[in-house]
Amino acid sequence: PLIKTRAGWRKASWEEALEMAGDAFLNAREKHGPQSVIFCKGTGRDIGPWLSRLAYGFGSSEYYALGPGSGSACLMPRMSVTNAVFGGFMVADCSQYFPLRYNDPRWRLPECILVWGSNPVDSNPDGFLGQWIVQCLKLGSRMIVVDPRETWMARRADIHLSIDPGTDGALAMAFLHVLFEEGLEKTGLEEKWVNGADEVREQVKYFSPERASAECGVSAGDIVSAALLYCRCEPAALHWGVSMDMSPSALGTAHALTSLVVLSGNLDVPGGNVIVTDPYGISRRGVDRDLAEDLGKTKTGLSEYPMIGSGVPYALADVLLDEIESGRSIECAWYQGTGLTANGFAEPKRVGKLLARTGLSVMVDLFMSPAADELADIFLPVCTCLERSGIRNWWYQLAAFDRVIEPLGESRSDMEIVLSFGRIVAGEHFPWSGVTEWFDHILKPSGHTWSELCRKGWLMPGTRYEKHLSTAGFNTPTGKIELQPGIMERSGLLPAPWYVPPPSMETGKKYPLKLTTGARNPLYFHGEHRNVKHLRELAPLPTVEVHPDDFPHEVGSGDWVLLESPWGSCRRVAVSSPRIKKGVISADHGWGGHGLNVNDLLASRMQGRGGLGYPFRCLPCRISGPVEAPEEYGDVQESPVVESECIMDVRTIWCTGCRACAVACVIHTGIHGLVVRCKDGEWTPGFTSACLKCSFPPCEAVCHTGCLTAEENV
Ligand code: SF4
Ligand code: SF4
User: Fold this and answer.
1) Ligand 2 contact via 685 beta carbon (within 6 Å)
2) Which of 14, 196, 377, 581 has a beta carbon 3.0–4.6 Å from 483's, enabling a disulfide?
3) pLDDT, average across residues 362-379
4) What's the distance, CA 299 to chain centroid?
5) Where are the domains of the chain?
6) Domain 90-275, classified CATH 3.40.228.10, yes or no
7) Rounded to an integer, what distance in angstroms lies between the CA atom of residue 656 and that of residue 658?
8) E strands, 521-605, where?
9) Alpha carbons 590 and 527: distance in angstroms, whole number
10) Is the CB of 527 under 6 A from ligand 1?
11) By alpha-carbon position, which residue is closest to atom 8 of ligand 2?
12) What interhelical angle do 209-216 and 168-181 show, nearest 10?
């Protein structure tokens, strides 16, 4: 642990650091009330339950997810809509609920999978693994992909709709238009269990494929073909991604796609979209339900934006920042697992300045990030996932993560840190003597102890389909699916699917390009891992993908360029790519500082209607250059592995280019026994002359699509 002094950072013991933080937090609560203290995480994964317990146990509903903070534009828009419509969330059913998986007789193979705004083989979002879709394709599912980039998935799709960024709402409404025009709605569910279908029909009546085509840049013919394919297949599954959350129409788009799943008869049926439940009723919130409901009513942003009361566990950071700017005082802040300004916010410099006004800030992180160095007063070192145990209750399973080594140095696990601090500031909510006892308490509803779960590894409670038939209907006030939920009207929203054009539609002579960002790079996780040498060798520089026809005359592939929007700029290395739609450029995210942060191109207060959603992925933009490389990045070399060293390509069509095999090889053997290159638009792994022909090859063990086999390597 470190404590900041006027002379810089000094080392401290855990006891001293926690005591100092505890005194400040308790003092703030006594003098200014619990809401003067905020608790924040990044995308966080299994940190959420522990941290929300700390916040609510302390008495503060100021619990924020800052990945991203602007518009809570990751999952929350979709979650708030599905929660309002049918009282839960839904995921594509790729048999993940059954231990027998694809062979389980209760499951049906989706005839069609609609992959919308997601490249799951690279992103594996929210516990949903892209390889499940790959397996369905191998078994015969057809696929539609909606993406402005020709991704790995798009290349294998039956129909690829190369949409303009941020126009998903227009396309989704046209799908509904086709559904009604062709009379493809499944009336059984509609008549008995759905309110509001007529209003949806009315709303999309004038949203013809031709009208949508003018908005989203996809031909009307392709829109009709794709809509008919999805609507006629029984069952069909929708896999939707974060892209649609990152537009001003996030809520309207989510409403349109939720309506599509419902009215095409694909909600909660085998091979469609399953309504998810917490395994064994173990909540991912980690805080007692009554406390969450009562205290949750006081969270920042709820009175202005009621939709954050619909299945969203967080307060709204945009409102918090505005309030700080207007004079609200934050006495203490706890940040855990967030790079803060590198990823999570529009106008990151403003955010840094406003959060620097906090009385005392504690940062819990793996590394001393630039944000920690700038903002923290106390730094607490957390250990990696290999050094800590944890419970993961993603929707389909309960899994144990058992540490493989003890924490190195003075680092501690997230849970140990929260428990130690919780005992100081919220003792009655943290009665456990150690983390294992706490885990046993959490696991009680499953009938298993922590050590039993560790021995088993995971538990899968299975699922029931059409749950409304065996319960009191859907989890809504009427027990029915509400396609016109009252909360939307209370939020000032049209209670039916809607669409507003994104800022990128305002491109003109000055800003002729549409900028999208946030496409996942399998080597990094948002702002993480750029300081891991083997990964950095494979992707050393912050890049922007540009269609060959969109390069300014004087700029070539590999040049540093300046990206500018009406609100800001950043530098990038331009990479020529025929896979990106002409007129659209794609800049990778997660690079902070040095004038590289792509979020510098966004302004504050651009959140979507209803407070949720943010146009991270749809900005007007222009490129100019070449420009000077930033000093710290200019001398990073490409990977030393050169193409000529490859002596045998592996014949496969399923390689996703994740490069886990290449990294596993170099970590385990210290040599580059394998390279993965892009040849003719396809990823191709190949063994080099250095390959040791390992008896138990790590490269093979980590391949998620089964491309590499021992036989290949002889
Ligand atoms: S067999 Fe061993 S040395 Fe060869 S590529 Fe695989 S891990 Fe590397
Ligand atoms: S061969 Fe390597 S890069 Fe390709 S999918 Fe397998 S692990 Fe990923």
Assistant:
1) yes
2) 196
3) 92
4) 23
5) 2-73+280-459, 90-275, 504-634, 643-713
6) yes
7) 6
8) 543-546, 560-564, 569-576, 584-587
9) 4
10) no
11) 658
12) 170
Cα distances from 82 to residues 34, 77, 513, 564, in angstroms, run 31, 9, 33, 36
Of 2.102.10.10, 3.40.50.150, 2.40.40.20, 1.10.10.10, which CATH number belongs to 504-634? 2.40.40.20
Position in ligand 2 atom list of the atom nearest CA 685 = 1
Ligand 2 atom closest to residue 660's alpha carbon, by position in its atom list: 7
**Ligand 2 centroid – CA 123 distance (Å):** 14
Q: Is 674's C-beta closer than 6 angstroms to any atom of ligand 2?
A: no
Residue predicted with more confidence, 50 or 147: 147
Residue nearest to atom 4 of ligand 2 (CA): 655
Mind listing the pLDDT tens digit for each residue in 1-42?
Answer: 999 999 999 999 999 999 999 999 999 999 999 999 999 998
Q: Could you give the CA distance from residue 465 to residue 409 in angstroms, rounded to a whole number?
A: 48
How far apart CA 100 and CA 24 sit, in angstroms, is 52
Cβ neighbours for 410, distance < 8 A, ≥ 6 positions apart: 1, 14, 381
Is the distance from the beta carbon of residue 694 to the nearest atom of ligand 1 less than 6 Å? yes
- Residues 248-298 pLDDT 10s: 999 999 999 999 999 999 999 999 999 998 888 887 776 777 778 889 999
Identify which of 334, 355, 336, 358 has the alpha carbon closest to the alpha carbon of residue 345. Answer: 355
Is 658 near ligand 2, meaning CB less than 6 Å away?
yes
Tokens, residue 100: 């027998």
Residue ID of nearest Cα to ligand 2 atom 5: 655
CATH topology of domain 2-73+280-459: Rossmann fold (3.40.50)
> In testing the pocket of ligand 2, which one of 703, 704, 709, 712 has its CB within 8 Å of the most ligand atoms?
703
Q: Is 206 left (phi over 0), alpha (psi -120 to 50) or beta?
A: alpha
The pick from 705, 709, 712, 713 for probing ligand 2's pocket by mutation, whose C-beta has the most ligand atoms within 8 angstroms, reads: 705
Span from the CA of 626 to the centroid of ligand 2 (angstroms): 34
SS3 label, residue 365: strand
Specify the ligand 2 atom closest to the Cα of 664: 7
- Closest ligand to 131 CA? 2
ipTM of the complex: 0.98
What is the spatial distance between Cα 258 and Cα 340, in angstroms, rounded to a whole number? 31
- Counting ligands in written order, which one lies closest to the CA of residue 668? 1
Work out the widest C-alpha separation in the chain, in whole angstroms: 73
- Ramachandran category for residue 682: left, alpha or beta (phi over 0 → left; psi -120 to 50 → alpha): beta
- How confident is the model over 661-713, as pLDDT tens digits? 998 998 888 888 888 988 877 889 999 888 888 888 999 999 988 888 755 55
Rounded CA gap, 371 and 377, in Å?
11
Tokens of 627: 């420009």
Contacts of 303 (CB under 8 A, 6+ apart): none
- Cis omega (within 30 of 0) for bond into 68: yes
Structure tokens at 383: 């250990």
Residue 361, C-beta contacts closer than 8 angstroms, at least 6 positions apart: 332, 333, 334, 335, 355, 375, 376, 377, 378
Q: Which atom of ligand 2 is nearest to the CA of 654?
A: 5
CA of 703 to the centre of ligand 2 (A): 5
From ligand 1's centre to the CA of 651, what distance in Å? 16
Architecture of domain 643-713: 2-Layer Sandwich (3.30)
